[in-house]
Structure formats: structure tokens, C-alpha cells
Design a protein that fits this description.
141 residues, mainly alpha, elongated
């Protein structure tokens, strides 16, 4: 029983491995849909995205695996939305704030501050800090 749990955990696509995927199996798409039902992201999809995902799921059930490059790319975009966690959303928002601040610093010729922000652009903790502080400020005002 334990080996089957480990095998399913290893087949689940993580957010990091998603960019490297070039095919989706029926089992993977089914697990992603179940997870999106649980985390509530399924409700956030548009009707077109839901229809595309259901069609891809039906095709994968019929053929076993989706390998068409264009279809995989479109499904990959939907899967990214479905697997998105609050942490990823905050990091994305923090990256937007960072880019805005960089533009302001460069425009006002404060190159030392811009240089410091440029070096911190890949720091996960700093991006989380920017995202949380900007979201909390946004909710206040």
C-alpha cells in the first residue's frame, strides 16, 4: 500500500516541473482537476477554459495521453491557474511591485537603489514581503 502512495506522489506534476512537461496523461489531468476542486481554483476559470480542460480530459481518456504541442501548451496554461496557490499569487504580485519600483528608481536616477532591487529580484522572501505588504496596503486604501 505504501509503494502505491509513493508512486502516485511521484507522478503528480509540481509547479516547478510543469514548464518541462510535453504531454499530459489522463490520470494526471484527473488529479489536477480534483485538486483544483479542493482548492477552489476551478470556480475561477472561465467557461472556455473549463470546456477546453474537459475536452482535453476526454481526449486523454480516449487516447491515454495528450502529446499535441499546441493542445499541451493551452492545457499547461490552464493547469498553472488550477494549481496556483496563495504563495505563488503573492510572489507574482511582489514581482509586479518590484518591476514598478525599478522603473521609478531608474526614472528618478537612483541607480544604487535600482541595483539593490535588481539583485533581490530572485529572492523568494523579498518577493513575498513585497507581495504581502502591497496586498495589505491595497486592502486598506
Amino acid at each position: 500500500m505504501r509503494s502505491s502512495a509513493n508512486s502516485t506522489a511521484s507522478t503528480r506534476p509540481t509547479f516547478d516541473k510543469l514548464s518541462l512537461k510535453n504531454s499530459f496523461s489522463y490520470k494526471e489531468l484527473l488529479e489536477i482537476r480534483k485538486k483544483s476542486y479542493r482548492n477552489g481554483n476551478w470556480k475561477k476559470l472561465s467557461l472556455e477554459e473549463k470546456a477546453m480542460y474537459k475536452a482535453a480530459l476526454a481526449l486523454a481518456k480516449l487516447r491515454g495521453r495528450i502529446v499535441n504541442f499546441n493542445l499541451v501548451q493551452r492545457v499547461k496554461e490552464i493547469v498553472e491557474e488550477l494549481l496556483e496557490s496563495p504563495r505563488v499569487k503573492l510572489m507574482r504580485f511582489g514581482r509586479k511591485v518590484l518591476i514598478e519600483k525599478l522603473k521609478i528608481y531608474i526614472k528618478s536616477k537612483q541607480f544604487e537603489l535600482a541595483k539593490t532591487l535588481f539583485f533581490l529580484r530572485n529572492d523568494v522572501n523579498f518577493l513575498m514581503y513585497l507581495g504581502v505588504s502591497a496586498k495589505s496596503f491595497e486592502s486598506i486604501g
